[in-house]
């Protein structure tokens, strides 16, 4: 928010000893930081208003003119000028001999192509004005001043160059300071002075001549709780007077016309956004505040056609939308040069709805910013009448009748109990009730005494940031002065911070996978509905239930993902297109599963560990090629990870998953609970993503936490020797090795300490449809040396169990 130092003095007496620098320091010390102090005079001195009395062609130059200028001197000055728009009768800035301009330019008498020039006529750029905010005609050639400017008058006060602008860095909760009145309240409280606001506005009105001069208003949405409209007729749209333009320029707002400029001026003054409609363009003189219809379209003031949805609030007439409530007006009802009667709107629109509309449509305006942060409904009528009066004065019009007002939910002031002892306890002070009461009253709050230790403080509706006792305590601290509060050490019981179990697990997983040579990536949780197409999902698949986003980033990021596979596959495809062929990537992310669509309750969020590998993996030593990724590479990563997390008794079974190769996919199960799956991608999915020989794993992090052991178990080294036996059995192809291993462990009992699969064979030496599976078994007792006879008994039990359960035969 940019605040003019001179304009602010209209509302509060700053005192003769105050300076912009002192004011900036006071505001900053009291919680309203001043980011920039800008002096508008960039080096202009001794520049006056000049009246061009006569112009003649330069005798020696086609593009120069010799002007006779009245600059308030005893005699007319002769000035040579090359501006294309100079002509007799104009009032323009005139730099006298000895004058200074921005850039350390000093004006002297000089001869230009043989003709003496006694000064310089100036453009806006030469005066250091911000030409980006000026009308085009004021930036091409000389800067034209109003006709009532007096020759010889200094240009600095006329153009506001003797002013200083303070740019406030407001926090989002201080919407009340987005106006001069709001800042005036703050400054008055800090200086312990009174604000200088005009009383209730009383303006002369004329009665409507016919029904076209009367506006009817209908509110059909709960997102508008107050709406007022005032008709002003007989206006003439023209440029604003210089004083109004100057004040808007100090705020960084471009002057447009007297009508539009008044709405912006009053918005800066009161903080209440206003909008003017050309009443002749409003059908049946009826204004309807309603929700937009699905697919409804409107061309806004920036010339863009926009498609609306039912979440957006619009201003409409009986036939079409004529404005986006609180965001931007419609082109079909804008004030034009020929406009003679306007309907001036002052309203309160729901902040959330206004913000959502602007976000969806990519629009941002000064009015929208104020609506979404919260405005003061109590000054709506005053702001409306103030603007109507200015429009009538500056546009030569008449205010018609009284405003039409509809208030469905009046704003309520909030009364909060403020305890004196609690205030001093929080601040570490010893302030009396009288001092604290004076702080509240200086802020414009009504205060009454509830008891000896409690004040009842009534907060005006303009202070939307105050809702609790602690907020009032903060206000007391601001006015008392943060620098006066003694520095003390915190008192209380401090707890030691620590990671949760889930945080430790995720950190451990990252360290383990990084140590194995995988790289961590982070992808969006948002995706597109089409991302599931390569998985060839069944119609009833739960993975199809994707939650749509209310404000998607783009069409490619409009739903929440239900699986991480497409996200990682797209990353691999992106890298392969750039010749990064050896990839081993992992991500710990979230997938989302709704209980129903559209969602009516919090969806189920699951944390997943996903990894994807393709190309080579492993050693990068000189002369040694990385090993090509295969099924056992991925299984080895899973086994190593689970082992390091202390997860035992893992059983691997063949599996089928969408997007995965049906014959090269397995799931991992612990104590009957599935913890994840891994394997090769389906060839059709690979072709869609542009991948080859790619492997994927996905584990449920919450389930891993359930079975992992955070504490390391230490066991004494074995005192007695082990006996190792190899066992090779022939079984049918459909029997998983994991099932054989589980049966071996159950049959061998507690003497069996280790089982390791070391060979799987299919070939000429076994019958067709069978395979040979070989295990290494390690037996050991904790209290004695085992004999061959004891081991043989257990070994025979294993063979017998395999034979009975799987018709397994020992391989010769």
General description of the model:
By secondary structure, this protein is α+β, with helices and mostly antiparallel strands. It has six domains: 2-40 and 164-191, Phenylalanyl-tRNA Synthetase, Chain B, domain 1 (2-Layer Sandwich), CATH 3.30.56; 45-158, OB fold (Dihydrolipoamide Acetyltransferase, E2P), CATH 2.40.50; 205-407, 3-Layer(bba) Sandwich (Phenylalanyl-tRNA Synthetase, Chain B, domain 3), CATH 3.50.40; 414-481, Phenylalanyl-tRNA Synthetase, Chain B, domain 1; 501-707, BirA Bifunctional Protein, domain 2 (2-Layer Sandwich), CATH 3.30.930.10; 723-810, Alpha-Beta Plaits, CATH 3.30.70.380. Helices cover 25% and strands 29% of the residues. The chain has 19 helices and 41 strands. A seven-stranded mixed sheet has the order 27-30-31-37-36-35-34, with helices on both faces. Strands 3, 4, 5, 6, 7 and 10 form a six-stranded antiparallel sheet that branches. Helix 5 (242-250) crosses helix 6 and helix 6 (258-270) runs antiparallel to helix 9. The longest helix has 19 residues, at 788-806. The protein is elongated and about 130 Å long. Mg(2+) binds at residues 465, 471, 474-475. Residues 411-487 form the B5 domain. It is an enzyme of class 6 (ligase). InterPro entries: aa-tRNA-synth_II/BPL/LPL, B3/B4_tRNA-bd, DNA-bd_dom_put_sf, Fdx_antiC-bd, Fdx_antiC-bd_sf, NA-bd_OB-fold, Phe-tRNA-ligase_IIc_bsu, Phe-tRNA-ligase_IIc_bsu_bact.
């Amino acid at each position: 928010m940019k605040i003019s130092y001179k304009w602010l003095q209209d509302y509060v007496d700053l005192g003769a000893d105050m300076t912009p620098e002192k004011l900036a320091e006071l505001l900053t010390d009291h919680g309203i930081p001043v980011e920039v102090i800008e002096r508008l005079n960039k080096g202009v001195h001794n520049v006056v208003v000049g009246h061009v009395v006569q112009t003649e062609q330069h005798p020696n130059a086609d593009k120069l003119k010799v002007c006779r200028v009245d600059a308030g001197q005893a005699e007319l000055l002769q000035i040579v000028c090359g501006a294309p728009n100079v002509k007799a009768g104009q009032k323009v800035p005139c730099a006298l001999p000895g004058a200074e301009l921005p850039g350390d330019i000093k004006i002297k008498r000089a001869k230009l192509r043989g003709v003496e020039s006694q000064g310089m006529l100036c453009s806006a750029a030469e005066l250091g004005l911000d030409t980006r905010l000026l009308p085009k005609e004021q930036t091409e050639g000389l800067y034209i001043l109003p006709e009532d400017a007096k020759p010889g008058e200094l240009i600095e006060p006329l153009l506001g160059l003797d002013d200083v602008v303070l740019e406030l860095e407001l926090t989002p909760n201080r919407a009340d300071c987005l106006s001069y009145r709001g800042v005036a309240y703050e400054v008055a409280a800090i200086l312990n002075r009174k604000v200088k606001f005009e009383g209730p506005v009383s303006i002369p009105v004329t009665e409507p001549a016919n029904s076209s001069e009367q506006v009817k208003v209908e509110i059909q949405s709960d997102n508008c709780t107050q709406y007022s409209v005032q008709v002003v007729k007989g206006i003439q749209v023209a440029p604003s007077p210089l004083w109004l333009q100057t004040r808007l320029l100090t705020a960084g707002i471009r002057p447009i016309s007297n009508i539009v400029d008044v709405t912006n001026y009053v918005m800066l003054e009161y903080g209440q956004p206003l909008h003017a409609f050309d009443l002749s363009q409003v059908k049946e003189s009826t204004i309807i505040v309603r929700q937009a219809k699905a697919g409804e379209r409107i061309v806004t003031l920036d010339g863009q056609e926009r498609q609306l949805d039912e979440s957006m609030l619009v201003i409409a007439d009986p036939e079409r939308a004529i404005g986006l409530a609180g965001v931007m007006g419609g082109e079909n009802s804008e004030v034009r040069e020929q406009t003679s009667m306007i309907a001036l709107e002052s309203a309160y629109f729901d902040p959330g709805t206004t913000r959502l509309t602007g976000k969806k449509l990519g629009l941002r305006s000064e009015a929208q910013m104020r609506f979404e942060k919260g405005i003061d409904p109590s000054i709506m009528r005053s702001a409306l009448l103030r603007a109507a009066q200015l429009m009538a004065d500056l546009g030569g019009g008449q205010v018609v009748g009284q405003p039409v007002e509809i208030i469905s939910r009046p704003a309520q002031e909030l009364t909060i109990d403020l305890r004196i002892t609690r205030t001093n306890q929080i601040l570490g002070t010893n302030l009396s009730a009288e001092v604290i009461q004076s702080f509240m009253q200086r802020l414009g709050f009504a205060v009454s005494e509830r008891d000896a230790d409690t004040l009842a403080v009534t907060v005006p509706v303009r202070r939307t940031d105050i809702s609790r006792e602690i907020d009032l305590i903060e206000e007391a601290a601001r006015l008392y002065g943060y620098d006066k509060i003694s520095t003390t050490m915190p008192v209380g019981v401090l707890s030691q911070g620590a990671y949760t179990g889930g945080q430790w697990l995720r950190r451990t997983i990252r360290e383990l996978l990084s140590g194995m040579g995988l790289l961590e990536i982070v992808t969006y949780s948002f995706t597109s509905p089409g991302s599931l197409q390569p998985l060839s999902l069944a119609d009833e698949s739960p993975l199809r239930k994707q939650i749509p986003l209310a404000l998607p980033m783009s069409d490619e990021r409009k739903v929440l993902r239900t699986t991480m596979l497409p996200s990682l596959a797209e990353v691999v495809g992106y890298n392969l297109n750039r010749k990064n062929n050896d990839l081993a990537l992992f991500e710990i992310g979230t997938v989302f599963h709704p209980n129903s669509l559209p969602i009516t309750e919090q969806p189920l969020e699951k944390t997943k560990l996903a990894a994807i590998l393709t190309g080579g993996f492993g050693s990068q030593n000189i002369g040694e090629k990385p090993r090509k990724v295969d099924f056992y590479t991925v299984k080895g990563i899973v086994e190593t990870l689970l082992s390091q997390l202390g997860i035992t008794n893992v059983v691997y079974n063949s599996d089928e998953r969408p997007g995965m190769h049906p014959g090269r996919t397995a799931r991992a199960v612990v104590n009957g609970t599935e913890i994840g799956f891994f394997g090769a991608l389906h060839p059709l999915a690979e072709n869609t993503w542009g991948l080859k020989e790619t492997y994927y794993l996905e584990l449920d992090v919450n389930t891993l936490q359930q079975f992992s052991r955070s504490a390391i178990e230490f066991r004494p080294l074995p005192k007695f020797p082990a006996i190792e036996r190899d066992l090779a059995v022939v079984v049918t192809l459909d029997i998983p090795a994991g099932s054989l291993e589980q049966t071996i462990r159950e049959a061998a009992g507690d003497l069996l300490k280790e089982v390791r699969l070391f060979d799987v064979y299919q070939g000429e030496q076994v019958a067709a449809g069978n395979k040979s599976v070989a295990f290494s078994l390690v037996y050991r007792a904790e209290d004695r040396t085992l004999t061959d006879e004891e081991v043989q008994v257990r070994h025979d039990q294993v063979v017998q169990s395999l034979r009975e359960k799987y018709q397994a035969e020992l391989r010769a």
